[in-house]
Amino acid sequence: MRRALHLMGSLDDNDIEWLVASGARHFKQRGIVLVQEGLPVDSLFVLLDGRLVVRLEAQGGKAIAWLRSGEIVGEISFVDSRPPTASVVVDEDSHVLAVPKTLLLERLRADQGFAARFYRAIAVFLAERMRATVAQLGYGSNAGDRDSLSVDELDDSRMEDVSHAAQRFDRLLKAVQQQAEPRSRAAGSQQ
């Protein structure tokens, strides 16, 4: 959930409202490919509930990571505009919020504050991922230091951000659910 913590902790309440209004909630059954390695991604996804698996086709479909509620998917391809280097497959039935890339780009161009918050969150996440990768490879001054923070630990300065992030993610979930309820009732009354 670290990507979501960075994103939700960096964005403000208006940004979250915009994501809910601009995104679409989708149910995805187990086995559906959400992101295909080598193919362009047209949305940024927030995993609302369920579980996804990240697979490398170049290694025979080997699973390299599992993503849970709150994770962000497609952010790297969004930032560098290149096709993804891994596939993301629905590992158990899930709901995602899909924010179209075109709308997100428009918002980033129109709102410099949003752009600064969004890109900072992505940069911090990618920096932490790089540090973790370097540490796993045994490089760097902290490679053998058991007292240094692990990848999943947060330093004290980030705790308040985490609290705000959790609150914002809860509001996002409730808002997406409320948005979906009238559609469900309308679809039920038409049958």
Polypeptide structure, described:
- By secondary structure, the chain is an alpha+beta fold.
- It has one domain: Jelly Rolls (Sandwich).
- The chain contains six helices and six strands.
- Strands 1, 2, 3, 4, 5 and 6 form a six-stranded antiparallel beta sheet that branches.
- A hairpin with a 5-residue loop joins β3 and β4.
- α1 runs antiparallel to α5 and α4 packs across α5.
- The longest helix is centred in the last third of the chain and has 32 residues.
- The radius of gyration is 18 Å and the shape is globular.
- About 5% of the residues have low confidence.
How is the secondary structure organized here?
Elements: H1 2-10, H2 13-22, E1 24-28, E2 33-35, E3 43-56, E4 62-68, E5 72-73, H3 75-80, E6 87-100, H4 101-110, H5 112-136, H6 159-190
Structural domains: how many: 1
Oligomeric state of the chains present here: single chain
Order of helices and strands: HHEEEEEHEHHH
CATH architecture: Sandwich
Biggest sheet overview: 6 strands, antiparallel
CATH topology: Jelly Rolls
**Global mean pLDDT:** 82
Radius of gyration: 18 Å
CATH superfamily: Jelly Rolls
Q: Please work out how many helical segments DSSP would assign.
A: 6
**Strand portion, in percent?**
15-25%
Unreliable stretches (pLDDT < 50, length at least 5) are 143-152
Helix content: 40-55%
- Shape assignment: globular
Structural class by SSE content: alpha+beta
**What's the CATH class label?**
Mainly Beta
End-to-end Cα distance? 38 Å
